[in-house]
Amino acid sequence: MLLLMDTANIKEIKQSIEMYPIDGVTTNPSIIAKEKRDFIELLKEIRDIIGYDKMLHVQVISQKADEIVEEAKYINKEIGGNLYIKIPVIPEGIKAIKMLKGEIKTTATAVFTPQQALIAAKSGADFVAPYVNRLDNISANGIKVVSNIVKLINIYNFNTKVIAASFKNVEQIYGVCMAGAHAITVNYDMINQMIFHPMTDWSVLQFVKDWENFYGNKKIRT
Length: 222
Ligand SMILES: O=C[C@H](O)COP(=O)(O)O
Known about the structure:
Elements lengths: L1 E5 L3 H10 L4 E3 L2 H6 L4 H12 L4 E5 L5 H15 L3 E6 L2 H10 L5 E6 L2 H9 L4 E4 L1 H6 L4 H14 L5 E4 L5 H9 L4 E4 L1 H8 L2 H18 L7
Parallel strand pairs: 1-2, 1-8, 2-3, 3-4, 4-5, 5-6, 6-7, 7-8
Helix pairs in contact: 1-3, 4-5, 6-8
């Protein structure tokens, strides 16, 4: 199971890498624009923080296959390392995924149906990224879509992995993990929510109280 951070915020990336078992970072144009920084400069800083081995997913802007390929090559040259180029599953995007196969790794993004994921996988995408919360928001079932994509990938034995994205609560995250998603990408709030439980905090406080009742402020290691 791969765990990625869906953010381009330097502080959030640094903190989550320090605290949690993070495999990489995913971005999209909206996430990047929020930081109000030079695109390449920001990505280079993220690469420096996470290192060359962790995954970095960066999305293209163009909507024509030839231009998508050019953007992918440019980002790859500038940023390098374990890089995945995110390409939306429009027809020209599928064409670009086919063109990049064997040269640059790709993540087919903005996936809303198993059919889109199937075509992207058949085209050679390394990852497909279904948007769970955006599906739930249009009264579809994000977890079911992820589950069906995982099933299709297994039926046809594609090498493609599912990176479930777009979460607004931990129940959605739990659901896609139970459905066998190979990877999840979550924002800073979600990663903290995943580990939070009021009973855990209460128990920790209780342990400390009981210890102090007998040992006072004595430490385990003096
Ligand atoms: O790149 C895709 C994002 O994970 C979408 O997430 P969002 O629906 O929270 O904007």
